[in-house]
Design brief:
382 residues, alpha+beta, paralog of FGE (formylglycine-generating enzyme), four-stranded antiparallel β-sheet, 9 strands
């Protein structure tokens, strides 16, 4: 066999160089973000991407997980200490002014907003166990964070996330993965706690859509997790304590037996919202005849499947009061927040999320609460 001629060697080396440059560029090019599967359906944030993207998962950054929650660890065991509770409020790092407002709202006049009475509550799942079950699960995609402007929020839509005008918290307040939800929060204060993070109480219709909607534009579901009631999917089916006296000793006798938010990975809507059934019921708003009323929805940890329907569209008429006159509170009642956003498709280069909700001035009731008194002696419950 003859030896290669000089010209042939030059051509071969040049060809090898071209191939090497092309391969190097391909290695440096970041892979596209794959679509995320939730319950067999594509997550709405990437529902419109090219189908070929789903195969390119190697080294791709797919989204934020429970390990991306970098806020301080919540109190363990739970506490009613105002300073500790203030650290749980989302966006509390904004400054001392926000913390001052939060401390005032977390005081005795605010009805002890907290994860419940720590002296009598029990929690079947620990924070560590919850985090272990959620580890590796994508809780928010980069596109969802871009649309919503904050952590642990997802856009509400039925097919095109870029057209969404509202984002909803993934978890019940304080909207952090694997943290016990707040209870004993009357709607007046819940609205203000949402406002500290530039948000507001969700409307009933927003909550309904977040529960039932298919991000690919298909038919709605009856429940967030499917069309058939299953008390094992969410934190439901517990027995209400026989010692619970809601009329004369609510705080002292009614245990808030919740679990950290996200403890039941299957209790998630197709848009990515956790715990809309079970754990705690939720307060939201509904507009009727020009008046903004409070609407209570969802079920709590003791829901047995027979009390009421508890599907996404169930429309109860519990404690219907104008929002600014609603002081109803309960050991199993919490809330979650929503945020108004400028649709991503309409933002251009400079636009961002909608203006933050202002925090109105508010003073707690003047009457002092004696340490030996039960502040819930005359409250009622559902």
């Amino acid at each position: 066999m003859r030896a290669p001629r000089p010209l042939e060697i030059v051509v071969a080396l040049a060809a090898a160089g071209v191939v090497g440059v092309a391969l190097g560029a391909a290695r440096k090019r970041p892979p596209p973000v794959p679509r995320i599967a939730i319950d067999g359906a594509l997550d709405g944030a990437h529902a419109t991407q090219d189908a070929s993207f789903a195969e390119e998962t190697v080294d791709a950054f797919v989204g934020y997980t429970v390990d991306d929650d970098h806020e301080p660890e919540p109190p363990d065991p739970q506490t009613t200490d105002i300073e500790v509770l203030a650290t749980l409020i989302p966006m509390s790092h904004r400054g001392e002014e926000s913390l001052t407002v939060a401390r005032r709202w977390l005081g005795p006049g605010s009805n002890h907003t907290s994860p419940g009475n720590p002296a009598i509550a029990t929690h079947a799942i620990s924070r560590a166990q919850c985090k272990a079950q959620l580890r590796g699960v994508v809780l928010q995609t980069p596109l969802q964070r871009e649309i919503c402007g904050g952590p642990w929020e997802v856009p509400i839509h039925t097919g095109d996330p870029a057209r969404a005008t509202t984002c909803i918290d993934v978890f019940e307040y304080p909207n952090r993965p694997c943290v016990l939800p707040f209870v004993y929060s009357h709607a007046i204060m819940a609205r203000r706690l949402c406002a500290l993070a530039g948000k507001r109480l969700c409307t009933q219709e927003e909550w309904n859509t977040a529960c039932e909607a298919d991000p690919n534009g298909g038919p709605p579901r009856k429940y967030a997790y499917g069309d058939t009631l299953d008390l094992k999917v969410c934190h439901t089916g517990l027995v209400k304590s026989p010692k619970c006296d809601v009329d004369t000793a609510l705080w002292k006798s009614c245990p808030t037996d919740t679990v950290p938010t996200g403890s039941y990975p299957g209790c998630r809507s197709r848009l990515g919202v956790f715990d809309q059934h079970g754990n705690v019921a939720e307060a939201m708003s509904r507009l009727e005849n020009g008046i903004n009323y409070v609407q209570l929805k969802g079920s709590a940890f003791f829901y047995d499947g027979a009390m009421y329907r508890d599907d996404c569209r169930y429309d109860p008429r519990w404690h219907v009061d104008p929002l600014e006159e609603s002081w109803h509170t309960n050991y199993h009642l919490g809330f979650r927040c929503c945020r108004s956003v400028v649709p991503l498709a309409d933002r251009g280069d400079a636009a961002a999320v909608a203006p933050e909700v202002s925090v109105p001035g508010w003073n707690p009731p003047e009457a002092a609460v004696d340490a030996d008194d039960d502040p819930y002696a005359t409250d009622d419950a559902d």
